[in-house]
Write a structure and sequence with these properties.
511 residues; 10 helices; six-stranded antiparallel sheet; Beta-Lactamase; 19% strand
């Protein structure tokens, strides 16, 4: 081959090699970046799902707690009405006896004319039917709310609580409780009463809605749509009809402004009154966090792509030597990207499992820790106990000194409790001003003194806000896990002990 031919061959060879190197390098670099970006998107999606799951559990816990409150209120109202009925029976018995001493055939209509609202009153004979009553109506199913008394001259007085009165009283108590429930971040609870389960216009009445109080009493329609064309009322109705509850998302006005935002809600059907009781959280924080991380990584990709294009241009002039340098730069870029990706992942994980105010485990994380402890207890036959602690009169602190003072009390209290518990115990913010403490390898006999120690430490701690000294106390419910039961049963028992302590005067430990 002559020199001209060899020169042309070398030119073609090197040109081909350079082009091949450029092609391979470009294809390899772009593939790696595409893979890393897809991996980032996948992890971001997983973290978003994790955060959403945590928010779903949080919403469910609020409504389930309110359903527990409803059962408690119904039980309390039963007790109250039983006491009233006992007094009413004594009063009406005396009234009837006095009437019978005056005449053997009293005018029962005149005697009980005003006693026809709460109670169904009947007069009869013990061995026969009624001779008079003040009107039939559905009565409660509770036998203790139906009483009778044999009077002189073989008369029988019966008195029963009317069901419609009891139900209306219970509804008032429930709505009062829900109206005065304080939730963080402008969250709230609303109630719709279903009239027609087939849906359509006027299918329900809005009973309670702190975001739109002027619409309470208005009729609702399943044909109503949000800004994206979703039909949230229809989705909610179909969900509670099928499963009794539903978690769904839509767009709705924020409480503190007229801005329409993405919202996640949980609704549950109270069949007793055909009520749908629901609460929700706006997803602005989650959407904004994911958007910021996405924009940050996009900027990284754009910068690294520019580096790749510059390096590829240099390869045209320095061929194989430049390729080696390019590989080093590429690896450095990948390491930097991976490091930043891990940092972003760590930040999102902290956001998903830690309470931002107190830096304690949040409800999701402490719940996972409880399930781990059940597994450990089952495997090694180790007992453990739970303490649910509630800050007494916390609303009064917020109302008198402001929410910043309340937040300061919560953060100081969290530090104090964390300092006082053992290293192997777990402490988390259960919700609002409630804290949950897991005591490992501890029985009930040992846990109660631990609770007393914590209670005294809080009672004697000098909480202050600016120049004000704040008196802070805790009421605690303590219980021991029973092998084979669910963690929900254990938590409920601790919660019941907490309410016993509240009813007994607060600032005490109840087991």
């Amino acid at each position: 081959m002559d020199k001209i031919g060899l020169k042309n061959f070398r030119r073609i060879y090197y040109t081909g090699m350079i082009l091949l190197i450029i092609l391979i390098s470009s294809a390899t670099g772009l593939s790696l970046f595409r893979f890393q970006k897809n991996e980032y998107n996948r992890r971001s999606s997983q973290l978003r799902e994790s955060i959403m799951e945590q928010k779903k559990l949080y919403l469910q816990s609020i409504i389930r707690e309110k359903f527990s409150d409803i059962l408690f209120m119904e039980h309390s109202l039963n007790k109250q009405e039983e006491e009233k009925l006992t007094l009413a029976l004594a009063l009406y018995s005396e009234k009837t006896r006095n009437a019978l001493t005056l005449t053997p055939h009293p005018n029962w209509e005149s005697l009980f004319f005003r006693e026809n609202n709460m109670y169904r009153i009947g007069i009869g004979h013990p061995d026969g039917g009624e001779i008079w009553n003040n009107g039939d109506s559905p009565l409660t199913n509770n036998p203790s709310l139906n009483r009778s008394s044999i009077l002189q001259k073989d008369y029988l007085l019966s008195i029963s609580l009317r069901k419609d009165y009891f139900d209306e009283k219970l509804k008032e108590n429930i709505l009062f409780n829900l109206t005065h429930t304080e939730l963080p971040d402008n969250e709230y609870i609303w109630v719709n009463q279903v009239i027609d389960y087939n849906g359509g216009d006027n299918y329900a009445i809005r009973l309670l809605h702190p975001n739109l109080p002027h619409t309470e009493g208005d009729f609702l329609s399943t044909n109503t749509t949000d800004i994206n064309g979703n039909k949230p009322y229809l989705e909610e109705l179909e969900g509670v009809k099928e499963k009794g509850e539903i978690i769904f998302d839509y767009y709705f006005k924020e409480k503190t402004s007229n801005r329409i935002s993405h919202k996640l809600s949980y609704a549950r059907l109270c069949e007793k009154f055909d009520w749908i009781i629901a609460t929700g959280v706006y997803l602005n924080d989650v959407d904004a966090l994911i958007q910021r991380e996405q924009e940050k990584m996009d900027r990284i990709f754009q910068r690294e792509l520019q580096i790749l294009m510059l390096t590829t241009s240099l390869i045209i002039f320095i061929a194989l030597i430049a390729l080696n340098q390019f590989e080093k730069l590429l690896q450095q870029a990948i390491r930097e990207y991976t490091k930043r990706l891990e940092e972003a992942k760590n930040k999102l994980e902290i956001f998903a499992f830690m309470d931002p105010l107190t830096n304690l485990l949040n409800r999701r994380a402490i719940y996972d820790r409880l399930n781990e402890e059940i597994a450990r207890s089952t495997r090694f036959e180790k007992e453990f106990c739970l303490i649910i602690a509630d800050l007494d009169n916390f609303k009064k602190i917020n109302d008198t000194l402001g929410h910043q003072a309340g937040d300061r009390v919560l953060t100081e209290l969290a530090k104090l409790l964390k300092k006082e518990i053992r290293a192997n115990d777990a402490l988390g913010r259960w919700g609002g001003e409630e804290f949950l403490i897991l005591l490992e390898s501890t029985d009930l006999k040992t846990s109660v003194p631990i609770g007393e120690k914590l209670r005294r430490a809080v009672e004697n701690y000098p909480f202050r806000w600016e120049t004000e000294e704040i008196k802070v106390t805790l009421t605690m419910g303590v219980t021991q896990y029973r092998p084979g039961e669910s963690i929900e049963d254990t938590i409920q028992r601790a919660d019941e002990n907490l309410y016993k302590g509240k009813n007994a005067g607060r600032n005490r430990v109840v087991s």
